[in-house]
Amino acid sequence: MDIKVYAKSLRDKLQLGIYAVINPFVRLMIKCGVTPNMVTTVGMLGNAAAAVLMVWAGYIAGQTGAVPYSLVTWAGGLIIGFSLFDMLDGQVARLGNMASTFGAMYDSVLDRYCELLTLGGISYYFLMAGEMWGALVTYLAVIGSLMVSYVRARAEGLGIECKIGFMQRPERVVVTALCALATGIIGQCGAMWANWILFGGMAVIAVFANMTAGARIAHCRRELQKKA
């Protein structure tokens, strides 16, 4: 089996399994009058809180020379928890028959805010902790993350479906959250190399997100040549 087909099949099965777990909770939210846009907003605020914790951790590290890894742990946990709202809002819209064009646009915009806030917080954290390379690599991850979304938006504006690539938003969120969480936990255990975990995660996103953006550009070029 083609590895891309297998990966998509595995991802779809995982998504269906998650939906089976969260759907009862989603139906309860709908009965309580919760709208998709409410869920999207709460998810963004949670990610903003995670970014604040990363900035706070960086500030303390810059002032004292000691990294408060407990704050990094909490930040990773918040990213994991509130990123689930990215799945909940879509299910609330679908199961509650509340899908709208504005809702889709609002969700996409707040997704970008979530990424910019969390990655910006991590970049500041590295900078204040005296790790310039970590801040630079995180900045490259920001560029890649934005370009993956931008190329897709431009492609869809030209009538081209463009969802290819490995490092899409769900993968980026998982890498960011797990690496932040692992960095915090291991750092609290006294490991001096804990920040290398977060650095590695940012490097993975920086490399593969920009590769995904490049692959999407090449895909659009091929599709446009076919139309021509």
Polypeptide structure, described:
- The chain is mainly α.
- 84% of the residues lie in helices and 0% in strands.
- Helix 2 (36-64) packs antiparallel against helix 4 (85-95) and helix 2 (36-64) packs parallel to helix 5.
- It is globular, with a radius of gyration of 19 Å.
- The model has no long low-confidence stretch (mean pLDDT 87).
Summed up, what is this model?
This protein has helices spanning 3-31, 36-64, 69-83, 85-95, 101-128, 132-157, 169-188, 195-227. With 228 residues, it is mostly helical.
Helix proportion = over 70%
**Secondary-structure element order, N to C:** HHHHHHHH
| Main β-sheet description | none
Q: Specify the oligomeric state.
A: single chain
Our measurement of the CA-to-CA distance between the termini, rounded to an integer number of angstroms, reads: 32 Å
Topology (elements, then pairings):
Elements: H1 3-31, H2 36-64, H3 69-83, H4 85-95, H5 101-128, H6 132-157, H7 169-188, H8 195-227
Helix pairs in contact: 1-4, 2-3, 2-4, 2-5, 3-7, 5-6, 6-8, 7-8
Pick out its properties.
228 residues; mainly alpha; 0% strand; globular
